[in-house]
Each structure stands twice: as structure tokens, then as C-alpha cells.
């Protein structure tokens, strides 16, 4: 299958589901996302129940702690990366491998920018005394945002491996579903972050 040569005219309209294996990958990524929704629902519920809870005199409130400008920049980076992955899938459907590689590379760079700001944010909080074990609130915050950050790392490693492994192979019906599954996972990460931005940062600062 990997040796089959295609042209834009002979390339399937839905390469991500053109083979039985591809359909299995498509179903598999959605099953995984559904299970992951359960994970995030539990950590969201935990955060909401423990928000602003901690020992007297040792606590930071959400309104005092969070910085909306930084969170907004992080949000824009991640949402833009979701858009660039859409462009990559557009080129994938049109059998333009260079376009796929280019836009997925931009997606990775934007994701790395987001991750760098999140690491800076965590470092800043720990530096001012808001560490993981400082209170129930801090534990819930770092668990929720850190779980999302771990998913970002997984997504970046996934996409980078695809870019490197297929750099000389070109686009085919074997790797197209893999790019598509990675793109779906990345969109899921972005949607989760929108909820985090709203529930944690926006509601935390504005009440």
C-alpha cells in the first residue's frame, strides 16, 4: 500500500477513511477521545470543588493569582495551531504533501510556544509560593492544567514523529489516516483548553 503512486486526480476524496485500517484508526481515535473526556470531566469537577480552598493565611485566591493577558496569549497560540492543522488536513485531502508538512510544522511551533508559556506560568507560581502541595486549590489547579499540558506534550511528540518518519516517504493511504488522527487529537486538546481558559482563568479573575 505504501508503494502505490497517486496523483491529485486519483487520490481518494476521504483518504483518512479509504482503507479498513484507516477506518479503524478513525473509530479508535474517537473512542479514545470519549474516554479522555471522562478524565477531564473528573479533574474539572475536582478543581471546581476545591477552588479557593486552603489553609487560612496560606492561600492565594484565583482573582489575585491568575493573569488574563498571559492566559489569553496562550489561548491564541493554541487556537491558531488548531487552524494551521486544519490547513494541513486541507492539503492532505488535496494530495499536497509539502503543504501537510509545512502546516503541521507550524502547528508544532505554535504548540511549543504555548508549552513554553505554560512552563513559565508554573515556574512563576511555584516561585511565589503557590506550589502543588501548598493547598487543595493549588493541587487541583496543577492537576487540571498539568493534565492538559501532558496532552499537549503527547500531541507534539506524535506530530513530530509523523513529520520526521514520513519526511521522505510522501503521502499515502497508510500515513494519511495517522496525520488525520493526530489532527483530531490536537483539536480535542484545543477544545479542552477553551474550557480551562473559561472556567479557570476567566471565571477565576472575573468571578
UniProtKB/TrEMBL annotation:
<dbReference type="InterPro" id="IPR033946">
    <property type="entry name" value="Ubiquinol_oxase_su3_dom"/>
</dbReference>
<dbReference type="GO" id="GO:0005886">
    <property type="term" value="C:plasma membrane"/>
</dbReference>
<keyword id="KW-0472">Membrane</keyword>
<protein>
    <submittedName>
        <fullName>Cytochrome (Ubi)quinol oxidase subunit III</fullName>
    </submittedName>
</protein>
<keyword id="KW-1003">Cell membrane</keyword>
<keyword id="KW-0812">Transmembrane</keyword>
<feature type="transmembrane region" description="Helical">
    <location>
        <begin position="140"/>
        <end position="164"/>
    </location>
</feature>
<keyword id="KW-1133">Transmembrane helix</keyword>
<dbReference type="GO" id="GO:0019646">
    <property type="term" value="P:aerobic electron transport chain"/>
</dbReference>
<comment type="similarity">
    <text>Belongs to the cytochrome c oxidase subunit 3 family.</text>
</comment>
<dbReference type="InterPro" id="IPR013833">
    <property type="entry name" value="Cyt_c_oxidase_su3_a-hlx"/>
</dbReference>
<feature type="transmembrane region" description="Helical">
    <location>
        <begin position="102"/>
        <end position="120"/>
    </location>
</feature>
<dbReference type="InterPro" id="IPR000298">
    <property type="entry name" value="Cyt_c_oxidase-like_su3"/>
</dbReference>
<dbReference type="InterPro" id="IPR035973">
    <property type="entry name" value="Cyt_c_oxidase_su3-like_sf"/>
</dbReference>
<feature type="transmembrane region" description="Helical">
    <location>
        <begin position="27"/>
        <end position="50"/>
    </location>
</feature>
<feature type="transmembrane region" description="Helical">
    <location>
        <begin position="70"/>
        <end position="90"/>
    </location>
</feature>
<dbReference type="InterPro" id="IPR024791">
    <property type="entry name" value="Cyt_c/ubiquinol_Oxase_su3"/>
</dbReference>
<dbReference type="GO" id="GO:0004129">
    <property type="term" value="F:cytochrome-c oxidase activity"/>
</dbReference>
<feature type="domain" description="Heme-copper oxidase subunit III family profile">
    <location>
        <begin position="1"/>
        <end position="205"/>
    </location>
</feature>
<dbReference type="Pfam" id="PF00510">
    <property type="entry name" value="COX3"/>
</dbReference>
<feature type="transmembrane region" description="Helical">
    <location>
        <begin position="184"/>
        <end position="204"/>
    </location>
</feature>
Amino acid at each position: 500500500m505504501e508503494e502505490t503512486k497517486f496523483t491529485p486526480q486519483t487520490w481518494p476524496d476521504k483518504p483518512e477513511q479509504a482503507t479498513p485500517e484507516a477506518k479503524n484508526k478513525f473509530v479508535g481515535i474517537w473512542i479514545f477521545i470519549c474516554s479522555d473526556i471522562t478524565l477531564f470531566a473528573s479533574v474539572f469537577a475536582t478543581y471546581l470543588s476545591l477552588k479557593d480552598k486552603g489553609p487560612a493565611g496560606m492561600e492565594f485566591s484565583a482573582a489575585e493569582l491568575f493573569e488574563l493577558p498571559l492566559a489569553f496569549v496562550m489561548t491564541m497560540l493554541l487556537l491558531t495551531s488548531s487552524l494551521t492543522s486544519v490547513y494541513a488536513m486541507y492539503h492532505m485531502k488535496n494530495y499536497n504533501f509539502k503543504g501537510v508538512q509545512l502546516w503541521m510544522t507550524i502547528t508544532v511551533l505554535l504548540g511549543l510556544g504555548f508549552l513554553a508559556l505554560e512552563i513559565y506560568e508554573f515556574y512563576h507560581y511555584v516561585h511565589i509560593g503557590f506550589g502543588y502541595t501548598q493547598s487543595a486549590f493549588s493541587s487541583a489547579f496543577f492537576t487540571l492544567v498539568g493534565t492538559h499540558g501532558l496532552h499537549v506534550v503527547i500531541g507534539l511528540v506524535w506530530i513530530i514523529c509523523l513529520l520526521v518518519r514520513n519526511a521522505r516517504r510522501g503521502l499515502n493511504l497508510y500515513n494519511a489516516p495517522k496525520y488525520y488522527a493526530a489532527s483530531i487529537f490536537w483539536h480535542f486538546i484545543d477544545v479542552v483548553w477553551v474550557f480551562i481558559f473559561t472556567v479557570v482563568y476567566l471565571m477565576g479573575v472575573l468571578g
